[in-house]
Amino acid sequence: MKNKYIAPVLLGATIAFLLYSCSSSTIPKNATAVVDFDKAKYLGRWYEIARLDYKWERDLDNVTAEYSLNENGTIKVDNKGYNVKKDKWEQSIGKARFVKKDNIGMLKVSFFGPFYSGYNVIAVDDDYKYALVAGKSLDYMWILSRETKMPESIKADFLIKAQEIGYNVSNLVWVKHDKAH
Known about the structure:
By secondary structure, the protein is of the alpha+beta class. 22% of the residues lie in helices and 38% in strands. It is built from 3 helices and 9 strands, in the order H-H-E-E-E-E-E-E-E-E-H-E. An 8-stranded antiparallel beta barrel has the order 1-2-3-4-5-6-7-8. The chain is globular. It starts with a helix and ends in a 7-residue tail after the last strand. Mean pLDDT is 88; it is low at 5-25.
């Protein structure tokens, strides 16, 4: 008789754990999100200069991310890129929300319903022209710019910072920007 209650309890605990772990957002151990983050300055179009490649962006060049404010206070995330193998444009639309306060560059982003992942702005210049973004772990990192290129000095600073955190920058994919969209 007692065994008939164990399975539902275990199932419920498993579902609760999965929902918690999928909705939690993290930042790599040695990384720190930008404080005094200005959400309004961060909105707009960013060009992906480099990234650590992963499943959802594999084979993409000409990648941009457009951030705009939703009516409910979340941030609309509109990612576009040209798949060089499929010879077509791809787009993913999601939402982001701040993990703590909206003046700390620690966000979580979702493209798939209740499943969120870390999106942490760990460096940004005063004019919000260049940004270094850490994902939830050392498997995810992006270098972003308001233009399709960025000064070598800023790129070098970001690479040093990324290495100090523990990123393997030799694995970065340097994104081409040769098509308009």
